[in-house]
Design goal:
Helix content: 40-55%
CATH architecture of the largest domain: Up-down Bundle
Family: Belongs to the GST superfamily. Zeta family.
Bound molecules: glutathione
Structural class: alpha+beta
CATH topology of the largest domain: Glutathione S-transferase Yfyf (Class Pi), Chain A, domain 2
Number of strands: 4
Keywords: Isomerase
Low-confidence stretches: none
GO molecular function, one term: maleylacetoacetate isomerase activity
Protein name: Maleylacetoacetate isomerase
Oligomer: single chain
CATH class of the largest domain: Mainly Alpha
Strand content: 5-15%
InterPro entries: Glutathione-S-Trfase_C-like, Glutathione-S-Trfase_C_sf, Glutathione_S-Trfase, Glutathione_S-Trfase_N, GST_C, GST_Zeta, GST_Zeta_C, GST_Zeta_N
Mean pLDDT: 97
Distance between the termini: 28 Å
Length: about 210
């Protein structure tokens, strides 16, 4: 199996955690999002993922993009520790909380959005910072409420799941962008527990072969 990704990409980080959790071997193929105008925009990569985004998973003849689709694919093809454990209602909560971060927050803070704000719209660094603060606050405030309703040891009850896999990289991004997390005690507590798990720790951006200082 091959995973095309970038060390600091939150969506790639999700896929790495999922692969590690399921103990699946994979070759990690870095796609540099900034060098040379962004390798995600080159023809060779666009053939794998026309959206010009990482990650992309290649499993034999199967090419899968979108980190949530990758996780569901892995769960169906490689049963083992489930990324969507429990019954329908529990699984629905896991999916909803995953999407709250992966579909409602991350696309608003993605590299290409930030580049468009500054390069095309001429938004200042202060403006861009206000943008990031605004969307993180909205999303994390709601996520904190969801955690108060659903969390046990992890985001949803006491079983590790896809929701945890979505939370970890989003907190990493928040810290990177200097977001104040003091208003989200439950989020910080769950994140603290998650960070120590070996399959999560091994997926950390700093541990990847393409990591930069
Ligand atoms: N919904 C997608 C998001 C993918 C995504 O936004 N990837 C980012 C890195 S986290 C990317 O490739 N950005 C490149 C760009 O914005 O040009 C997924 O979950 O896979």
């Amino acid at each position: 199996m091959e995973l095309y990704g970038y060390w600091r990409s939150s969506a790639s980080y999700r896929a790495r955690i999922a692969l590690n959790y399921k103990r699946l071997d994979y070759n990690y193929l870095p796609v540099h999002l900034l060098n040379d105008g962004g390798e995600q925009h080159k023809q060779a990569y666009k053939q794998l993922n026309p959206n010009e985004l990482v990650p992309t998973l290649v499993d034999g003849r199967n090419v899968v993009h979108q980190s949530l689709a990758i996780m569901e694919y892995l769960d169906e093809k490689y049963p083992g520790p489930a990324l969507l454990p429990g019954k329908a209602a529990n699984r629905a909560v896991i999916r909803a909380m995953s999407l709250d971060l992966a579909s409602e927050l991350q696309p608003l803070i993605n590299l290409r959005v930030q580049q468009y704000l500054t390069k095309q719209l001429g938004v200042s660094d202060e403006g861009k910072s206000a943008w990031l603060q605004h969307w993180f606050k909205l999303s994390f405030t709601a996520f904190e409420t969801s955690l108060n309703d659903n969390a046990g040891t992890y985001c949803v009850g006491d079983e590790f799941s896809m929701a945890d896999i979505c939370l970890v990289p989003q907190v990493y991004s928040a810290e990177r962008f200097g977001i104040d997390l003091s208003d989200y005690p439950c989020l910080r507590e769950v994140y603290g527990r998650l960070s120590d798990l070996p399959w999560v720790a091994a997926a950390h951006p700093s541990k990847q072969p393409d990591a930069e200082n």
